[in-house]
Amino acid sequence: MSDQTYTYFVEVPEGYTPERPDGLWRRAGDEWQYLSLLDWQWHRVENAAEFLPAQDVLQPVTAERAAELQADRQLWVRYWARYTDEAAWRDGERPTTVVRRRRSPERIYDEAFKIRNVWGPTPAVFEFFDPRPSNPPHLVEISADEAEQLLQELRGVTGATEL
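The chain above was modelled as a monomer; its predicted structure follows.
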């Protein structure tokens, strides 16, 4: 199907805005697809009743706006400076690394920038937001540009936030 046959929607649950939504969806007739924020491809929804977000969080957007959103990969990623714990942050210690989260309909993917200068899975974001861990890391949300700058300062690398 051509892009002209689709109706596009942004997913805007609480805490998100149409300018920075949580997901991008499209529909042609009864067929729904979502943009995977992991492989950046459109995927067909097999079971709409179980997989689609609530209709009240879907807001229509133009095909042009959907294309802009699809092209801006950094828009979909949240970055944090990771500190050992809140005390380290309060004491003015430097962060240890950068962590990021990509929320995609099929999976939430949390990564940390690791010692060998590669992104790898991490439980840090989950631990920070989950009240159960007794000693979670402390995260301070930063922009993609700030993440790039911090990784350049900490590890001497550039281009680490490219997706």
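Residues 144-155 form the longest helix (12 residues).
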